[in-house]
């Protein structure tokens, strides 16, 4: 008797929805949505600086259509702490109201963004690079990668047999100075993946990206030969570059001063997280006039020619604490972001006109290292993870096309060059366009932002993580505080921490809100006595009790 044959077909995978609202067809302002069965996850929430518009405003992604479409993200995951990946949180997170997952450094920067907008920070969930966690409908495996800021991660997103690698920003650097290296074994372990959503920024660059270790060596040699005052300008988020400049200054007997609020905040945060433990003590800008020019090094922000930045005011001789003189050395340890070239050139010419010596990566190769992979690095990654398909993001059209050509050389399919607003569906084998949303530029005036705190020149904001010991009815400080003070000579973290610990022992509060009010009143009185000046203190309590 013939036996009936039963053919079991493999179950079809449900579709993944992919919706970029920033970072596709452009560089910067990254925001990507991933959806599965009407549940959504946001990866990154960045902004862009519009040098082409008067007063250099900010631009953030247009998310206005999401509510109409019934899209309400359940989580935001931040890949690293750069402005083009988290700078829009202060404006966009209130629309979502969901948990924000970030590594400790990115979480510290994210807290600053929320606090600046008067928002609570208890939505932030901290994970260590390499950790696995659930976010929205996805299981997320974070993977350490090297970049121009520590604690950068790629993300493996898994759901219903789908395996998508979102690379974030990355490079292969054997000596990143700070942070992790990009390790082959971390990626071969997850191979093969169905889809890579990959960084295209340097897909047109043939050579391998330069190591941060090489930049440190170049800076050291250049600073050694400089006469007069030295100003080193770099991105404030590049803690490795800041540390390299600081150590070079110490070796050549130069005192360090910081120019720019962003630089001050990042150095403070870098110290709190232990990345700048070896960074020399700084001197106030108000004191540098008493030091010989050849004994000072200034770390400054504003290398992109931003008109409102401290470096531009310095070039125009409009800074109250410092005047550039003939023979001073201005080192640009950065490269112009596409679109900023003219502004950077004008800034450098202004310094040259004042008789300063200007050094840049274009004239003195080795002063900057890109944080993005060149062509051989992209080839290495794809040989490690063996993807079936590529979706090229983080770049303009030419970058995306070059990225696709690299993938094609390895037999990897890449059928779509995504643009912002292009709603895609991925079934595990094919990428299809559902529709293209109409997006409008959302512009944020920096002039308005600058006026907002002008009446609060002596404000201090303290972000204080605590845990509630229910058995004792007491609150206890955990981890390190985040201190953002506009007072020039604020108390050191250890002194403040000791006071907080002692004060918490005598406070009985039922809620974190009540604790915040009580602690603020006591802190205002205590700091007034310590500083001999009035300083309005705001304490943002982060209750970690339920997260432990």
UniProtKB/TrEMBL annotation:
Any Pfam family the entry gives: RNase_J_b_CASP
SUPFAM superfamilies named in the record: Metallo-hydrolase/oxidoreductase
SMART domains: Lactamase_B
Coiled-coil region list: none
Superkingdom as given in the UniProt entry: Bacteria
GO MF entry, a single one: exonuclease activity
Keywords: Exonuclease, Hydrolase, Metal-binding, Nuclease, RNA-binding, Zinc
Domain Metallo-beta-lactamase intervals: 28-219
Protein name: Ribonuclease J
Biological classification of the source: Bacteria, Pseudomonadati, Pseudomonadota, Gammaproteobacteria, Oceanospirillales
